[in-house]
């Protein structure tokens, strides 16, 4: 078995120098952590890895045991973590794990560049991990490894991606336990009307927002701002761009922290893509590329002219939109968000600063970038980002021509639509030669099966809509 020290490698893109504040997730060195534990200022280490649903899973390790055992050797966890559904049910049909295989262990391999304090829990730090087999070989289907594989492919072309995610959520004054007890009915939203950009509206929830902004800063994220959104209780906190692996690491910490802080405040938040009949919650992903010297390669000058590299990359994103939609929208509920005139895109295409398109080009000069608008708040950031990079590589390697920009309202134009049902997007991904070439059969088959599991669970459920519609009338 390889040592943890040899396995904990990380791809880091070179960032343009802007300002002096750190934009990496690491706010704590391993040596500092050892000193903090020895002094009694840290007593708990969260050892965490991201599952297929984009959630942090792991163990709460005592400080002493972390130093004595886990620091150099990692820790183990059941391999069903990479083969369970949203409700953590064991699921048949995966190559990785099954009752017949005995549900053995995987290794949690700490990546110490992710060490961070967790301010909303006393004396607590977190380290994020890669997952590996017991012989030390990486688990290719784990979300972080899926992304790292695409980062490595892009690196061989001489590029590193940088960017940020814009993640929306809905805040409720109803706590999680009360919400579950009421079967998630009659939830009290934290706002009573559309508070998009409203300072008065966000001022009414500033107690929670202030904790979220400042405690994310304390966890090593570079918080930029917070704002209201359209749906009742809907909010967004923005974070500064950095390399895409760190962006995804930060993203999952933010999701966990937003929920835990809300829980401590007697509230709840949801990252469902469509929690009710109003506007859905998105996860827009902004991305650009730099070369090995940290020089942006998307702009052709100081204005909005795109380089050939950017044109090919964006062309790849557009060309694979249909095949890769499942990786941006992995749940049944994801597709309820896609509706005309909703700010959630339906048209496959790109446009200049056009929020009706799936891909929006924004910025100028070094800030020139694209925004992928299809993912919802329920997207797994590692998988969605890996899809974008794989798409861009496809465009670069095949020198794809960028189609004409969509102008005006893309919702009403005669262009191809993204898949509008999970059934269709899973089928498109599973049968995609581009996907299998980029990710390999093992990854494609694993995540295609996850989609089939989600579909089967929904198809077997009797919904409130069916009961209300047919109980008396049929």
TrEMBL record:
- Pfam families for this protein: Gln-synt_C (PF00120)
Keywords, comma-separated and alphabetical:
ATP-binding, Ligase, Nucleotide-binding
Name listed for the protein in its UniProt record: L-glutamine synthetase
- Entry-linked InterPro entries: Gln_synt_N, Gln_synt_N_sf, Gln_synth/guanido_kin_cat_dom, Gln_synth_cat_dom
The UniProt entry, under SUPFAM superfamilies, shows: Glutamine synthetase, N-terminal domain, Glutamine synthetase/guanido kinase
Task: Using the record's annotation, list all stretches that form the GS beta-grasp domain.
Answer: 40-136
Single Gene Ontology MF annotation: glutamine synthetase activity
BP term (GO), one: biogenic amine metabolic process
SMART domains according to UniProt: Gln-synt_C (SM01230)
EC number(s) stated in the UniProt entry for this protein: 6.3.1.2
Q: Which residue numbers delimit the GS catalytic domain?
A: 143-474
Family assignment from sequence similarity: Belongs to the glutamine synthetase family.
């Amino acid at each position: 078995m390889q040592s943890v020290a040899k396995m904990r490698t990380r791809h880091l893109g070179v960032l343009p120098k802007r300002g002096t504040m750190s934009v990496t997730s690491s706010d704590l060195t391993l040596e500092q952590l050892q000193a903090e534990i020895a002094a009694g200022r840290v007593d708990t280490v969260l050892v965490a890895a991201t599952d297929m649903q984009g959630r942090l899973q792991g163990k709460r390790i005592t400080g002493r045991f972390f130093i004595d055992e886990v620091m150099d050797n990692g820790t183990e966890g059941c391999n069903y973590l990479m083969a369970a559904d949203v409700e953590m049910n064991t699921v048949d049909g995966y190559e990785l794990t099954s009752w017949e295989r005995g549900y053995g262990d995987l290794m949690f391999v700490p990546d110490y560049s992710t060490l961070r304090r967790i301010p909303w829990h006393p004396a607590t730090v977190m380290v994020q991990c890669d997952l590996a087999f017991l012989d030390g070989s990486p688990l290719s289907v784990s979300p972080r490894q899926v992304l790292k594989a695409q980062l490595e492919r892009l690196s061989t072309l001489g590029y590193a991606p940088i960017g940020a995610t814009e993640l929306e959520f809905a805040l409720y004054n109803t706590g999680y336990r009360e919400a579950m007890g009421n079967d998630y009915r009659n939830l009290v939203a934290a706002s009573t009307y559309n508070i998009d950009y409203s300072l008065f509206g966000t001022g009414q929830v500033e107690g929670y927002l202030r904790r979220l902004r400042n405690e994310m800063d304390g966890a090593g994220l570079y918080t930029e701002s917070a704002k209201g959104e359209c749906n009742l209780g809907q909010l967004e906190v923005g974070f500064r761009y950095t390399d895409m692996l760190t962006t995804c690491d930060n993203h999952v910490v933010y999701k966990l922290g937003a929920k835990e802080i809300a829980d401590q405040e007697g509230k709840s938040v949801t990252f469902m893509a469509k929690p009710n009949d109003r506007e859905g919650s998105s996860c827009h992903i902004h991305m650009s590329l730099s070369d090995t010297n940290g020089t942006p390669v998307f702009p052709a000058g100081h204005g909005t002219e795109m380089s050939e590299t950017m044109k090919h990359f964006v062309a790849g994103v557009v060309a694979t939109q249909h095949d890769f939609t499942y990786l941006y929208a992995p749940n049944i509920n994801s597709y309820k968000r896609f509706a005309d005139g909703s700010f959630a895109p339906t048209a496959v295409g790109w446009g200049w600063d056009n929020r009706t398109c799936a891909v929006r080009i924004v910025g100028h000069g070094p800030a020139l970038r694209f925004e992928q608008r299809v993912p919802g708040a329920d997207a797994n950031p590692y998988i969605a980002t890996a899809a974008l990079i794989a798409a861009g590589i496809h465009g670069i390697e095949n020198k794809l021509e960028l189609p004409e920009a969509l102008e005006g309202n893309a919702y009403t134009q005669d262009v191809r639509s993204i898949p509008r049902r999970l059934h269709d997007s899973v089928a498109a991904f599973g049968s995609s030669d581009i996907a299998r070439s980029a990710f390999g059969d093992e990854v494609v088959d694993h995540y295609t099966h996850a989609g089939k599991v989600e579909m089967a669970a929904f198809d077997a459920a009797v919904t409130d809509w069916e009961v209300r519609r047919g109980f008396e009338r049929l």
